[in-house]
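Morning!

This is the sequence you dropped in the shared folder:
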Amino acid sequence: MNHTEVFVAVNEYVYKNPLIRWVEDLNHRTIRFLRKSKDRVYDFGCGPGAHSKYVEGKYLGVDTLDEMVELTGRAVKGDICDLPLETGVVSSSVCSNVLEHIGDLEGAVREIYRVTKIGGEFILSTPCEGFLYRLGRRFTTKRFVERRTGEGYSKFLGEEHLHKPEEILKTCSRYFRKGPTIGVPFVVPLLSINVFLVRRYLKEVE
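The structure's back. Tokens below.
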């Protein structure tokens, strides 16, 4: 299996595993709780469009993979480092467990900043990479990837998770004003005890 095939297979597995599905559901509910804008929600790196079920109004996903755009149904193909959007048109955007996969982290955050209007919100979710996250991964996706590919999971992880959560949060804070932060599942925003960290950012006057 090539890299893209593994990535697509992992996404399919994630949404079939009840434990992962429960944590992912809580993650998306937390994102919805932090979203305040009632305008269209843009989902950057939308994957199969899981967050669309948590959006009451208009929704548009953006993803680089044709398979994910097709699965979502309400998405367009696009690169997070070169979004197919005009400058300053987005009131509300979501980026859930995506930025750790992007080689040009700075470019991706800068592009999200570009398309966000003044006063617009950007909701980030990122894996914590702490003890609980590593434990869950050991008995779920790690086992799945090793059985499916016959290779060590560390090789796949090294290709996929290119940035630590601290780096991602720091980069986003250079562009946006930091807002409320919630840990999933334990609410307290500590990387060491949670699976995901969800934070609301705002774009202020330049």
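Headline: The radius of gyration is 16 Å.

More detail when I'm at my desk.
O.
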